[in-house]
Amino acid sequence: MSPDPRRAPRAGEPCPCGRQAVYGECCGRYHAGRVAPTAEALMRSRFSAFAIEDEAYLLRTWHPSTRPVRVDFERGMRWTGLEIEEVTGGSPVHTDGTVTFRARYAYRGQPGEMRERSRFVRHANAWVYLDAAEE
């Protein structure tokens, strides 16, 4: 039997974000409460949160002006990979930034891909997701 893809990986298991790092040293530390130091780190940790359906983390890292009441996870959706294409700003010295990415998924067994340019801003001294930028 294969493991449940929505279960949070154990600390020593590969991180869903695709970095060559284990979950506990990568996105797991942000899910556990550490603040992501860059917009890219937040983007990766949010992808991982979608992969394991960590609604609390997603809502906590969403800007209050655009945050939904809840996150509706699509039944039959499994996030399978992330590729960062471009990062602008978003470093520890910036107040805003964008991350353009491709996310792979399987929806009811059929492979797919989405591309987005996400906007991030600093809010209450932490990076948060604002919205998807117009292409």
Topology diagram in text:
Elements (H helix, E strand, L loop, with lengths): L26 H5 L7 H14 L2 H6 L16 E13 L6 E12 L2 E14 L2 E7 L3
At a glance:
By secondary structure, the protein is α+β, with helices and mostly antiparallel strands. Helices cover 19% and strands 34% of the residues. The chain has a single domain, classed as Nuclear Transport Factor 2, Chain: A.
Fold and architecture overview:
- This protein has 135 residues and is an alpha+beta fold.
- It has one domain (23-132): Roll (Nuclear Transport Factor 2, Chain: A).
- Helices cover 19% and strands 34% of the residues.
- The chain is built from three helices and four strands.
- It has a four-stranded antiparallel beta sheet, covered by helices on one side.
- Strand 2 (96-107) and strand 3 form a beta hairpin.
- It starts with 26 loop residues before the first helix and ends with a strand.
Question: What are the salient characteristics of this protein?
Answer:
about 140 residues, alpha+beta, Nuclear Transport Factor 2, Chain: A, four-stranded antiparallel β-sheet, about 35% strand, globular
